[in-house]
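Team,

Forwarding the record for the chain on the shared tracking sheet. I've put the sequence and predicted structure together so nobody has to dig through attachments.
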Amino acid sequence: MWRDARTILVKDLRIEARTRVATTQVAPFAVLVLLLFAFALDSETTVLQRATPGLFWVAVLLSSLLAVQRAFALEAPDGLRDALRLSGLHPAGIFLGKVAAVVVQLLALEVLLALGVLVLYDASLGSPVLLVTTGVVAAVGLAAAGCLYGILSIGQRVAATLLPLLMLPALAPLLLAATQAFAAGIDDRAGEGARWLGLLVLFAAGYLGIGVATFGVLLDDS
């Protein structure tokens, strides 16, 4: 399973390195979202700083939709999804490899957006350890949930609109926990942030477990 996950991870990252979709489409979109909020609240610096955690994770969430759609669009043309089913790869390995590839892209995006909020929103790094841990765990949760719902929607004609409808309601608890933990990290309230971080860990572990257990059936039915 782990060997197959590594194979899928390397394949997806190589394709991304050649096509540079995340670099040319996802990253500019995320930065544009931050810029729009900065211009909209430019005269309200206090409000902008207070809203920084929420605005940051909204940008990450919207960008994750593009990353997940891209991850499963790779196998959409020319019957590649059927080839993936017949490849003999472990279904859980395929799921974990897809999740890992999306996580790598989301972490790079979070670093870019963190620099953006530092410059545009004048945010501070009160507890860097909590902020980094929150970013990593939330990225895993977003990727796991996204890949699980991505395989459900990829075979549908309205996949582009179905994926957000499936993902956004399910990710509301993660977005809330990530925002609260991030806010605690900015304000250097590590004790309070640790409770929200625990919820993030449960969310990420839950979706990883569900994906590993059910991805094979979902792939066959997609």
